[in-house]
């Protein structure tokens, strides 16, 4: 059993953009790194080594590895180093090497490598000695939970495991058991009502418009204006005289297009975070045509001026059809009619809840996620909701005053509240028909008996008494 201050539980929040890992009860994660993984096909790597020098010791080592397998690279440092033939793509491209798509895991081998990196390289811990708490999206399926438990118990041999909804953790972080959590992350935006610590699944709303989508919109808009973003690996700067630098382009023919796109996205994402802010009113081309320009210096020394795009890109969250006016975003036209803006998602989600709790939900709307840390987003959302919500509703949008806290601390503060309230983890291994199945039981300190929970292997409901 693990309870109270004796718990040194490890917390992992695997998102579509970044993975956060740390210890329960702390205000911020110990490690934050991209949840996208680089991949090199061993056949390509071995072929290049043989062409360069077939007698080197490196080739002798690589020749022992099976052909056709891929070598994975995880973490900011590994992804920042350019390698020949390394594929690294986001979920919206053809080859999916981000482990998540719309919050659902699509590649468990990559997820496994991310967990390995978190345990061995970031936290430097032995997972067999720590109970595990994993944050999961509100739309996570039963099959995903089963696979997660299987890996954690069978491979990592964790002594205890608990899966908690992101929305519940964010709600607990604000000291509320009932709220509407607006989680705008890298891959998508999710609106999830929470009542008495439980997510109301029937009222959860999702949208593909997230941080990565806004970054793509900004990249396409800059490209249409003739602004070229050079990846950091594609040039070097030499100081020809004091204070004067010359940029020399470097050509790497074996660099994949996916890695080039990822490197450009990193720069475009920094531009978005530095200069963009949500407009006070819906974006209008004529009203923002003469807006003052804001300078931004690119890594190659080029200084660009950004004007109306500072407000147009964030307004896509409130008016998704605005993305169709950006050159190069034609692919969004197929799903654009079904995508709703942020205020409409919140109101529709609340309207699908019971009438008795709608007033409380309108007064407790919480912002979470990296995209939600954008300047003036809280004020704009509250303003739009006041205009569109029923007159009797008292709308209140809550968010941390610090952007860093809003981006990372929601789940971790929530877990520090969550662990004392659900202190006991107990894991039992049950042998059924010769196959080991896992049964995860959890109960509160003040419970008289253990709450029955279905066996995750056979979906049966079994009443289990406390030992």
Automatic annotation (TrEMBL):
Residues 54-63 have a biased composition (Low complexity). InterPro entries: Actin, ATPase_NBD. Gene3D superfamilies: 3.30.420.40, Actin, Chain A, domain 4 (3.90.640.10). Residues 41-69 are annotated as: Disordered. Belongs to the actin family. This is Actin-related protein.
